[in-house]
Design goal:
This protein has 21 helices and 23 strands. It has 588 residues and is α/β, with parallel strands linked by helices. The radius of gyration is 23 Å and the shape is globular.
């Protein structure tokens, strides 16, 4: 039984393939289209899933899309009658709904089905149940609370309930136009970060500021009994047609969602090209405080309602790793599970497992304990990519080495890292989700206080306030981080132990924290072995890990890794067991 799950006609479109309850492949369309958060239809991702599974389109039995436009129709109609939104907004939504309704033809084309071929059964799974399913059905828990918090999907922004075995009961929904995701988006745009997905920049900026604007920001949100909340809609215009949204094929866009009243409250909004000041840092810090207050308000109600000690989280707001790291401190929950594609990309996963468990009634037999579900490339493909760029590599003065064993490669690479070089590390199957977790990574020495600026200004070409993550072997995380737990997906932030902060300056953020990734020998022996080799050399079982890209989606194939390597000031590129060294790199 093959089930294809897709997120389509939204941002972060993606596809997954589940065979007999086991995940076989999961990948985001952006990695193929080379457009961040690309919207539209995941045609390339679907075809990649088929290739990874070794099947053809006619072998797909069920297709699940994480949209059900007819959900909550009476609420939508009542809202339209009461508020009479801009006709352009209504027309845009209707056009998007029509694409979802006719998705069967796009699926058939992507699967390569002829008119006479049997078509798979199509299931439309509501957006928020797909979020909840993406978290619970792949978690290690047989029973847990489930909660999804995001912008919106199918007229819902927040939902929670309880998962037990193959059942998932939704007990509460917060409906449009009230949304914690929209709260964070409005202030993100006010701070001069206008692009889809820029909220993570504000999260990285927040630790630089003093949260002295909490009081005015609280005007935007009202917390109500039972975990409920409402926005003061006079500060927002997403609900009345003032903010156009585009989910067509290409770059997703969202117009300005805040009204002039927010500027009357906070002062003029920052322009994207204007300098960042201490006032902007303070506002980012204050937003994080107000957002976390609201999250704790919701999650405490979830705990009281479900009486569970474990929780599975999903939705775009579940990518706020700073808040995630404090859940066990601020709520009754003792165990937290968040899969690596918690945003809308992950609804493709949830839709597939919703069909497997809820529609087909099949038992659970899969736990996602690693993120390596994308395409891989063998030595022949790597050698072909290197040969195709031979002239460019020669002009850059590069040399190519091949290592006889993984141990030899790891020891050599660890030595280069310890010598201060920046390494592009391309191995195995590509990661699922927003984080590079050791297969499509840029790696460096966390002990160097200048390394963050080196990578931000010479390789990533991005804002200097952006932090980098520590990747630590699983056995040593408690030695370096306070109250940390095993987290292979890099979705929780913890304090670095005070006595270790001078040891790890490149991965310790300005507030003394780090977005932790624990690396398991069982899940990723290659990356674990490299970190262990670095520990043997330096005594430190930690590497700086950031995504292998430069203002683009994470690299997918060897040719893209070579392109990024050649156009930046990276020193070494390791592709499988091949290492390419620039002549400018220091000799280890």
């Amino acid at each position: 039984m093959n089930i294809l799950g897709i997120n389509a006609y939204h941002g972060d479109v993606a596809a997954v393939l589940v065979r007999d309850g086991q995940l076989v492949a999961a990948v985001e369309e952006e990695r193929f289209r080379r457009i961040k958060h690309v919207a539209g239809f995941p045609r390339s991702a679907i075809r990649a899933c088929l290739a990874m599974a070794g099947i053809e389109g006619r072998d797909i039995d069920h297709v699940a899309i994480s949209r059900r436009p007819r959900a909550h129709l009476w609420r939508k109609a009542l809202f339209a009658l009461r508020h009479r939104p801009d006709p352009k907004l209504v027309a845009s939504r209707r056009a998007n709904y029509a694409r979802v309704d006719s998705v069967g033809d796009a699926v058939a084309e992507a699967l390569g089905l002829a008119r006479a071929d049997r078509r798979p059964t199509l299931h439309r799974v509501e957006h928020h149940p797909a979020h909840l399913a993406s978290a619970f059905f792949v978690s290690p828990f047989d029973e847990a609370a489930v909660c999804a918090i995001d912008g919106f999907g199918d007229f819902v922004s927040t939902s929670w309930g309880t998962g037990r075995g193959r059942s998932l009961d939704v007990a509460h929904r917060t409906f449009f136009p009230h949304s914690l995701g929209l709260l964070y988006l409005a202030v993100t745009q006010y701070l001069g970060f206008p692009h889809f997905g820029d909220e993570f920049k504000v999260m990285g900026l927040a630790p630089y500021g003093a949260p002295d604007r909490v009081a005015p920001l609280r005007h935007l949100l009202h917390l109500e009994p039972g975990g409920r909340f409402t926005l003061d809609l006079s500060y927002f215009q997403h609900w009345n047609g003032g903010a156009a949204m585009t989910w067509d094929d290409g770059v997703p866009t969202i117009g300005r969602v805040f009204t002039p009243k927010l500027e009357a409250l906070l002062g003029p909004a920052r322009q994207p090209d204007a300098p960042l000041t201490s006032a902007h840092e303070a506002l980012a810090a204050s937003l994080q405080v107000v957002f976390e207050e609201a999250v704790w308000h919701v999650l405490r109600a979830v705990a009281a309602s479900t009486r569970q000690r474990a929780i599975c989280l999903a939705g775009g707001c579940a990518m706020n790793s700073v808040a995630n790291g404090r859940i066990r401190e601020q709520t009754p929950f003792s165990d937290v599970y968040i899969q690596p594609a918690a945003g809308d990309n992950g609804t493709a996963l949830g839709a597939a497992y919703w069909v497997w468990h809820r529609v087909l009634g099949q038992p659970r037999a899969f736990v996602m304990d690693h993120a390596y579900w994308g395409p891989s490339f063998d030595d022949a493909a790597i050698d072909a990519a290197i040969a195709a760029r031979a002239d460019d590599l020669a002009r850059a003065g590069c040399t190519v080495q091949t290592f006889p064993s993984r141990d030899a490669l790891n020891a050599w690479t660890a030595g280069r890292i310890a010598n201060g070089e920046v390494i592009g590390w391309f191995q195995g199957r590509m990661e699922w989700g927003a984080r590079a977790l050791g297969n499509r990574s840029i790696l460096a020495d966390p002990r160097r206080s200048d390394m963050r600026e080196i990578i931000n200004t010479k390789i990533k070409f991005r804002e200097r306030f952006r932090p980098f993550a520590p990747a630590v072997i699983e056995e040593a995380h408690a030695d370096y981080f306070v109250d940390s737990v095993i987290d292979p997906f890099m979705v929780q932030v913890y304090p670095v132990r005070p006595d270790r902060r001078t040891v790890l300056p490149a991965v310790t953020h300005v507030d003394g924290s780090g977005r932790l990734q624990t690396v398991s020998r069982a899940a990723n022996p290659e990356f674990w072995g490299l970190i262990r080799a670095f520990e043997t050399l330096t005594g430190v079982p930690v590497l700086l890990n950031t995504s292998f890209n430069e203002n683009e989606p994470i690299v997918h194939q060897p040719a893209e890794a070579l392109d990024c390597f050649l156009r930046t000031r990276m020193d070494v590129l390791v592709l499988g067991t091949r290492a390419i060294v620039k002549t400018s790199a220091a000799v280890a």
